[in-house]
Design goal:
Order of helices and strands: EEHEHEEHEHHEEEEHEHEEHHHEHEHEHH
Number of domains: 1
Distance between the termini: 41 Å
Helix content: 40-55%
CATH architecture: Alpha-Beta Barrel
CATH superfamily: Luciferase-like domain
Number of helices: 14
Number of strands: 16
CATH class: Alpha Beta
Length: 378
């Protein structure tokens, strides 16, 4: 099993400046790599203190040079906020510079504050995401992009430098709503599973994804194994682990509710966001504290043995190729985050890494995948 590290530049009311947050988190990144974590994952968010991570591709370029042996994952690049040609160029450049180490996670985004900031109509997000995903994935394979579909108008242009590696098998999408599962399967991309709902519901969504994949791509083309995120807290004392998880992982979900405007019903009446509107209704019925506890209890926290058992349940339920946990969130003191990280590395990571799991896809030189690229250069 591949184990990565999720980077959490989350600001809080603990008095740290944004630069302090970066300093503390980047130090934890170095610790995680030294402890044997095999990939680094960065999200994309804007405008609030929810997560201070506006450009995962730029960050990963820096980290890829600093740590030349780890894989680099985006979780996710939110495509509707980007011009697809420039986005494809930046993805190709990062993958070339890193020697094909990129695991490309894509998503459509759900925060109204971010859509409003970029002046993008949320009602078009799903169609725009599908259009841009097709454009970018195809461009990364063939080395050029061209579009005129109502969302992008691009005359044929070459990607230079040309993509040196195929991205086939290395493209994933963050999907939470059940309606998104068949869409991702038809796009031919893998799934990034970011826990937001009970695990049996996640498994049902994954089954729907797999059914659509087989119907679209054939029984002889198995769908890729998912990759899974999640918040972790590990402590030798079970009672302290529970208290810290409820306080800080639950605290993280309070930041989710604030950033995405669930209390304000920010998704009401917005096309394609019906699932997220239902989340607001759930919070109305049960209260924000109960919602936060429900979220926290989805996560693998506890003593090392408890965390191993919870991760084993996730393995058996979803069959992931990799997990990439978060250790720093919601004002968790850096010393506690580091202690949790080190205990995980010492007592959980060796056990989980030894599990049988599907292999993460490796980069393949582009010319060996698409002979048309060879002909075009001759």
């Amino acid at each position: 099993m591949h184990i990565g590290y999720s980077i959490g530049f989350q600001c809080s009311d603990d008095g740290r400046s944004d630069q302090d947050v970066y300093t503390d988190e980047l130090r934890l990144v170095d610790v995680a790599v030294d402890l044997g974590f095999e990939s680094l994952w960065s999200v994309e968010h804007h405008f609030t203190d929810y997560l201070l991570s506006p450009d995962p591709l730029q960050l990963l370029a820096w980290l890829g040079a600093r740590h030349p042996h780890v894989r680099l994952g985006t979780a996710v690049v939110v495509l509707p906020w980007h011009e697809p040609l420039r986005c494809a160029e930046r993805i190709a450049q990062l993958d070339n510079l890193s020697g094909g180490r990129l695991l490309l996670g894509l998503g459509r985004g759900i925060a109204k504050v971010e859509y409003d900031g970029f002046g993008v109509d949320m009602d078009t997000s799903r169609e725009r995401f599908v259009s841009y995903t097709n454009l970018i994935v195809e461009a990364l394979e063939r080395g050029w992009i061209e579009a005129d579909d109502g969302f992008a108008s691009i005359p044929r242009r070459e990607l230079r430098p040309r993509p040196a590696f195929s991205m086939r098998g290395r493209v994933f999408a963050g999907a939470i709503s059940p309606e998104a599962m068949p869409i991702m399967a038809r796009l031919g991309v893998g799934l990034l599973v970011i826990p937001q709902k009970p695990w049996p519901v996640v498994r049902a969504d994954l089954d729907a994804y797999r059914d659509t994949w087989r119907a679209t791509w054939g029984q002889d083309s198995p769908p890729p194994a998912p990759l899974c995120g999640g918040h972790v807290f590990v402590d030798a004392d079970a009672d302290r682990a529970r208290e810290m998880a409820h306080r800080y992982i639950g605290g993280y979900y309070h930041t989710v509710m604030a950033h995405y405007g669930f209390a304000e019903h920010a998704h009401a009446g917005v096309k394609g966001y019906e699932f997220y509107a239902s989340v607001s209704h759930h919070i109305d019925r049960h209260g924000s504290e109960q919602a936060a506890l429900e979220f926290a209890d989805l996560m693998p926290w506890g003593t090392p043995d408890q965390v191993i058992a919870k991760l084993a349940h996730l393995r058996d339920l979803l069959g992931p190729a990799a997990i990439f946990p978060w250790f720093s969130y919601a004002g968790l003191p850096p010393a506690d985050a580091e202690a949790s990280l080190r205990l995980f590395a010492a007592e959980v990571l060796p056990e989980v890494r030894a599990w049988d799991a599907p292999a993460l896809p490796e980069a393949v030189a582009a010319d060996r995948v698409d002979p048309r690229r060879v002909e075009a250069r001759q």
